[in-house]
Every structure is written in C-alpha cells, then in structure tokens.
Specification:
Helices cover 26% and strands 33% of the residues. The protein is built from 10 helices and 18 strands. Strands 1-7-8-9-2-3-15-14-13 form a 9-stranded antiparallel beta sheet. Strands 4-5-6-12-11-18-17-16-10 form a 9-stranded antiparallel beta sheet, with helices on both faces.
C-alpha cells in the first residue's frame, strides 16, 4: 500500500506539471483513481482527515458565516454563496435539509462516508479553505468553501474538534462495479395505471415514489407519461431557457444533485456565459457550470399538485441520470408563475 501511494504521488506530481490548470476531479478521472485518493496525498500538507458524525460537522458550518456551497455531478457544478444554517435531519438521520433563502440543500446521509478539511492553493497565490465530503467510492458529495466574508478563526476550531487520530493510513475506497437494476421494458409496465397515478399526483415530491412503485426509470416516465404531460425538447433548450430567464429577470429554481446531496438556487440568473462547450451562470451569489456535451435528452414535464400544474425542465445524460432540473420560482400553496409557463412554451 505504501508503494502504491508513493507511485500515485509521483504520477500526480508529474500530471500537475503537464496540466497545471486541471481540477483534481478531472485529474483523478485521467489517472483512474478517486478524487479522495488524490486528496489524501496531501495529508499533513494542508489536508486533515476528519472523523465523527458528518451531520454534526454540517451543523457546525454555520460558525463560518458567509460561505460557498458546492454540489456537482458528472456534467454540472452548482455553487451558491450564503449562510449555512437551519439544518435538520429526519428518517432516523438518513435524510436532512438545510432550508435557507441562499443555501438550500437536501442530504441523503447514507452516502456520506468521509470528511476532510483542506487548504487548497488557487490562482494568484490564494489559499482556499474548504470542508469536503465523500462517499465510499471516494467521489465528492459536497464541499463548503470559506469566502472573504467568512469567519476564518472558526476553521482551526472545527478542524481541531473533528481531527482524526490517524492521519497516515490511506483510506481504502470501494472499487467494486456499481450495481444497477435493469430497467423493465416498456411492454412490462402497467402504463394505464402509471398514467392514472401521474394524473392523480398531489405533490411534486411524490413523483419519485410513483416511479419506484411502478418500477419505471425517469426517462421511461418521460416517454410513457399521459398525453400532454411531457414534451421532448431539443438539447439546446436549457441554454435558451437560461437566456430568456435572464432577459426577462424571471426568478427560477435550479437543482443539481448526486446520490448524496441536492443543491438548489432560487432567484434570478443574470450573467449567462457560453464557454468552450459549457454554458455558465456567472453571478455574484450563484454560479452554474453545465457541460453541454453531456446532455442526451431534455424534457418538459407537467406534474399535478394541490396548487395546480407545476411545469419543469429535466435534463438527462446518456445513462438516464438527471444532470439538472428547473422550475419557476414557487412555494407550496402558491400557483406557479404564468410567466414561467409562457417561457417554457417557447422552447
């Protein structure tokens, strides 16, 4: 194990010389290891392994005040600045939420296995202070970065509180193939009952349970939905949606998630910047980076609720995984904005 670590250290050092601008996650992909394994190469050199309950660490994030929360998947990165507060957990601690106007998160804690504090060197000789959380495969679930407005003294206090005794033994990540259930073919789905359950929905949060009950994948649901409840859009629709929302100053909701965390932005988007195969939102409080080449399908969805139809845009990759999904700004008890429905109808 020591030999393997030394070999990886040398490979990573050489890699950084050749591609100094590449992010650690992308370097891990090219080196065929996990991001966690590369991060641990800096244990005792700016990186500290933490131990204890991740839920407790998350609750302590409020001590930093104004921070930047980052959640990503293969093709989208969601960065939101604000106050990390109002965290609660339910379902015997397996699920949690952080409900704030800015930092708005949904936690799925069975995926949260490892935590680290990391000082990362950035451009212009800047040091970024962060807390990073990983699943058992060494993939990043969620990261929290201190900003110029954060309380820097709290960093050392939190690190001291949760510092693991062992800072040398490499973590053994799970490298077994990911087991995925085979999707049922369309002809084995009870389409009539599935469509009726869709029409009878009362809350958008019930949608996932409905898919599970009928053993329907999300992209299957798009195809098999009741007539008029979904519409296939072209793969440029997400770009047009962001541009129109910016032009009209229409507040929207943007969700990006992975198996362990979903992060939500609610509000306007202003500065839309295309860049080398990406579309980006580059606002002061919110950044979105979406890799357009990862998009395989985009659908408009219409889901009934007690407050009327809720219209969404769902973006999928080639594996049928959600990359990003969007709604008009809304709250329970209030019908969605007609301006949002009008915008979506133009896509």
């Amino acid at each position: 194990m020591i030999k393997e670590t030394i070999t990886l250290q040398l490979e990573y050092q050489q890699f950084k010389k050749m591609k100094p601008q590449l992010h650690i996650r992308d370097a891990a992909i090219e080196l065929k290891v996990s991001e966690l394994e590369l991060l641990e190469l800096s244990l005792s050199d700016g990186v500290v392994r933490l131990e204890g309950d991740c839920k407790a660490i998350l609750k302590d994030m409020k001590q930093f005040g104004y921070v930047m929360a980052l959640t990503r998947n293969e093709y989208a990165v969601h960065e939101r600045k604000g106050i990390y507060d109002n965290i609660s957990f339910m379902a015997e601690g397996k699920m949690g939420v952080a409900v704030n106007p800015d930092i708005d998160l949904r936690f799925f804690m069975t995926e949260w296995h490892y935590a680290y504090a990391a000082k990362v060197q950035s451009g212009l000789n800047r040091t970024l202070y962060s807390f990073q959380f990983f699943n058992d495969r060494g993939h990043a679930i969620h990261k929290v970065y201190l900003t110029a407005k954060s309380e820097p003294d709290a960093y050392n206090e939190i690190v001291k509180k949760y510092r693991a005794q062992d800072q040398t033994t490499p973590t053994i990540v799970n490298k077994n193939p990911v087991a995925k259930e085979d999707a049922l073919p369309d002809h084995d789905i009870d389409v009539i009952n599935f469509q009726q359950d869709w029409i009878n929905l009362q809350d958008t949060h019930d949608f996932f349970g409905m898919l599970k009950n009928h053993k329907v994948t999300r992209t299957q649901a798009m195809r098999l939905a009741p007539e008029g409840y979904t519409r296939r859009l072209d793969n440029h629709a997400i770009v047009k949606m962001l541009e129109l929302a910016s032009e009209r100053q229409l507040p929207i909701m943007i969700f990006v998630g992975n198996d362990g965390c979903i992060q939500i932005h609610t509000g306007q988007v202003n500065k839309i910047v295309p860049m080398e195969g990406w579309i980006n939102v580059m606002d002061s409080e919110f950044n979105l980076h979406l890799k357009l080449g990862g998009i395989a399908e985009i659908w408009e969805t219409r889901k009934p609720t007690k407050d009327g139809i809720v219209t969404g845009i769902e973006v999928f990759d080639a594996e049928g995984e959600l990359i990003v999904y969007c709604f008009g700004k809304r709250k329970p008890g209030i019908p969605e904005l007609q301006a949002w429905r009008d915008l979506v109808s133009e896509l």
